[in-house]
Amino acid sequence: MTNIISLSDTLQIGGTNIVLIAGPCAVESAEQVYSVAKTMHALGLRVLRGGAFKPRTSPHTFQGLGLEGLKILRQAADEFGLLVISEALGVEQLPLVVEYSDIIQIGSRNMQHFPLLWAAGEQQKPVLLKRGFMSTIHEWLAAAEHIMSRGNQKVILCERGIRGFDPSTRNVLDVNAIAQIKETTPFPILADPSHATGRTDLVFAASRAALAAGADGLLVEVHPNPAAALSDGEQSLPLDSLPSFVDEMRRIASAMGRTLES
Ligand code: PEP
Ligand code: MN
Looking at the chain, which runs of residues are DSSP E strands? Predict the structure, then answer.
């Protein structure tokens, strides 16, 4: 049985409802985030994602707006009644992420950053623990236990793809892992079809597969103009395709005997 975790007074994850989290890879400007939040609200989506502190592979690329990014996210979310999820890259930033967001994200590269896991374990807010891209399921579950060992039981897992040998996709979505977590552990599990594929053209299919395998939700990157994105434009859904994405995921949810948010 999957734990049901409250994200707010009116939104839970791990039950029959599927939670679709959307937003840009990185917060770039107030206008960008506002337009995404507005569209999400119109579609009945409830949780806005956006990176303020970015774990970029190269230090020569956009590193995020930091605190300013968190403020932008919070403001846009409050305007439309949404929740915020954002990544804490280190223990130093955790208090800021806790102050401005509703769910703490721990990224793939930090899955075994134990001091960060312990610090997140001392918080009250839910923690989304992304799978390390070279980590086994056993290591991932052990990392979740590190968080819980400090008191915070509100751990949600996110399968975001593991490294494969084929360079045609950024990662490989481990659908087995989704089914296995669902069958054998109490953790709610999300899938991130954006980082799992690295390709906009594969995001719909990967999302369908994840929900069919039993995922409790999706974390998907969306951008008003992916071609101009400062981070991960090549895997972001254009904002104007979000309505058809939500419509399709609602149909998969219903085929699985589940609902999608509203
Ligand atoms: C993200 O979701 O913003 C992100 C950086 O993903 P990951 O940690 O899975 O690479
Ligand atoms: Mn990204």
Answer: 5-6, 12-13, 17-23, 47-49, 83-87, 103-106, 127-130, 155-159, 189-191, 217-223, 237-238, 259-260
Ligand with an atom nearest the CA of residue 57: 1
Note the helical H segments in 53-192: 67-80, 94-100, 114-121, 137-149, 175-184
Closest-lying ligand 1 atom to the alpha carbon of residue 108: 8
CA 104 – ligand 2 centroid, Å: 16
Q: Is 74 in the pocket of ligand 1 (CB under 6 A)?
A: no
Question: Residue 227: pLDDT band by 50, 70, 90 thresholds?
Answer: very high
Nearest-angstrom CA–CA distance, 193 and 210? 8
CATH number for the 5-260 domain, one of 3.30.450.20, 2.30.30.110, 3.20.20.70, 2.60.40.420?
A: 3.20.20.70
pLDDT score recorded for residue 261: 77
| Mean pLDDT confidence for 71-93 | 98
Atom of ligand 1 nearest to the CA of 54: 5
Q: What is the mean pLDDT of residues 6-20?
A: 97
- Report how far residue 147's alpha carbon sits from residue 143's, in angstroms, rounded to the nearest whole number: 7
Beta bridge partners of 248: none
Q: What is the pLDDT of residues 31-42, one digit of tens each?
A: 999 999 999 999
Confidence at residue 121, expressed as pLDDT on a 0 to 100 scale = 98
> What local confidence, expressed as pLDDT, does residue 262 receive?
58
Q: Is 130 touching ligand 1 by the criterion CB < 6 Å?
A: yes
Q: pTM above the 0.85 mark? A: yes
Separation of 148 CA from ligand 2 center, angstroms? 26
Ligand 1 within 6 A of 160 CB? yes
